[in-house]
Write a structure and sequence with these properties.
This protein has 317 residues and is α+β, with helices and mostly antiparallel strands. It contains nine helices and 13 strands.
Length: 317
C-alpha cells in the first residue's frame, strides 16, 4: 500500500478506518494456502470524481483482500487508476466494457487482484443469454440488463472461475426474479459443460435480493448454489443500515471444504455520527455514499491448497 505523503486529516481518517477494518476480523491470507475474496458495490464509481480522502479510503479497504469482484464501476476509469496507484505495483484489474443504455447504466464489472496471491488464467468474458435462430440471425430471446462478467483465476493449487453480477433494480419484482432464474440456468449450463475451464465456481455481486426468505433467493439457488458456511450465520446485511442482503457470495465447488470458516462484512460506516471521523468537514449520509459507497464489502476466506482434498476423494472413490 502506497498512501504516500497525505495530509494530517487524511492520515487521521486512515487510522480511524483501520480500527473499523480491524473490527471486521479479516484473517491474513497465506501464500499458496488461503486467499481472501470479496465483492463490493462501490456506488457509481467513476461517475463523479472522488475526493483524495475517499480514494485513499477505498484503496485501504480493497487492500484487505486478494481478489475483489467490483460492481458499479462506470465508464470513466480515472478513479480506478488512482486507486490502483495507491494499491501498488502488484495489483492488476480485468474489467468488462460499459453498457451505454439506461438498463446498463454505463456500468462495468471488474476484478481487482494482487498478483502475488492470485494469477489470472486467461478467461474473461460476459455471460450472454442462449441464442435461437430467427431467419438468418441468431438472437437471444431475453437479456440481462447488465451482463454478468466471469474470469478464471488460480491461487495455490486451486483453479476457479469467478462470476460477478449486478442484477436489475426497480419495482418489477417478477422481472428481477426472472433474471435471477435465467442467471441460475446459465451458471448451471456452464458448470455442466464438458470443456468448461474449471468446475469450481464462485458467484458473487449485487443480486438485489432483500432477504434469504425472498423468492428471489430461491431463484438464484434453484440449481444448488450455496452460501459458504462462514457467511450463513451473519446477523446483518451489507447495506449501510445492515438490514438487507443485496450482496451475496455463492459457490458450487468440487471441494466444499476449501471454504474456510472465516467471512463477513467489513463495516466502514458504523452509523451516520461516525462520518465525521473520516470526513471532518462533515457531510450527509447520502453524500457519504457517493464518496465511499452505500454497500459494504462482503468477504470470505478460501483455502487454496487443495491437494489433500483431491487425495481424500481418490481414497474414498
Amino acid at each position: 500500500m502506497n498512501h504516500g505523503k497525505v495530509s494530517a486529516e487524511i492520515a487521521n481518517g486512515l487510522l480511524k478506518l483501520k480500527e473499523r477494518i480491524k473490527a471486521a476480523n479479516i484473517p491474513s491470507s497465506k501464500l499458496d494456502e488461503t486467499i481472501n475474496i470479496a465483492t463490493w458495490n462501490i456506488r457509481e464509481f467513476g461517475k463523479k470524481k472522488r475526493s483524495i480522502a475517499a480514494i485513499h479510503y477505498i484503496a485501504e479497504i480493497l487492500g484487505q483482500f486478494d481478489l475483489i469482484g467490483l460492481v458499479e464501476l462506470r465508464d470513466n476509469l480515472s478513479d480506478l487508476g488512482r486507486v490502483l496507484e495507491i494499491l501498488g505495483p502488484y495489483w492488476r484489474a480485468v474489467y468488462s466494457d460499459m453498457i451505454s443504455d439506461a438498463g446498463g447504466n454505463r456500468e462495468r464489472i471488474a476484478y481487482l487482484y494482487d498478483k502475488r496471491a492470485v494469477t489470472f488464467n486467461g478467461l474473461a468474458a460476459e455471460a450472454n443469454q442462449p441464442r435461437v435462430k430467427k431467419g438468418f440471425e441468431y438472437l437471444p430471446e431475453s437479456s440481462f440488463w447488465r451482463s454478468p462478467y466471469l474470469a478464471s483465476f488460480k491461487s495455490g493449487s486451486f483453479d476457479f472461475v469467478a462470476l460477478t453480477t449486478h442484477i436489475r433494480w426497480g419495482d418489477n419484482d417478477p422481472a428481477r426474479q426472472g433474471e435471477l432464474e435465467r442467471l441460475a440456468d446459465w451458471i448451471e449450463a456452464k458448470r455442466l459443460e464438458k470443456t468448461s475451464e474449471d468446475k469450481d465456481l464462485i458467484v458473487m455481486g449485487d443480486f438485489n435480493i432483500p432477504s434469504r426468505e425472498s423468492p428471489m433467493f430461491g431463484a438464484i439457488t434453484r440449481h444448488g448454489l450455496k452460501i459458504p458456511s462462514a457467511l450463513l450465520g451473519l446477523n446483518h446485511g451489507s447495506n449501510l443500515e445492515k438490514d438487507k442482503r443485496y450482496d451475496q457470495i455463492f459457490h458450487h465447488p468440487i471441494y466444499p471444504e476449501n471454504f474456510s470458516h472465516s467471512g463477513g462484512v467489513l463495516d466502514f460506516y458504523i452509523e451516520e455520527t461516525y462520518i465525521v471521523e473520516l470526513f471532518p468537514q462533515g457531510m450527509t449520509k447520502a453524500e457519504f455514499t457517493y464518496q465511499l459507497s452505500d454497500h459494504l464489502p462482503l468477504w470470505v476466506q478460501v483455502r487454496t491448497d487443495i491437494d489433500g482434498f483431491r487425495l481424500e476423494q481418490i481414497v474414498q472413490s
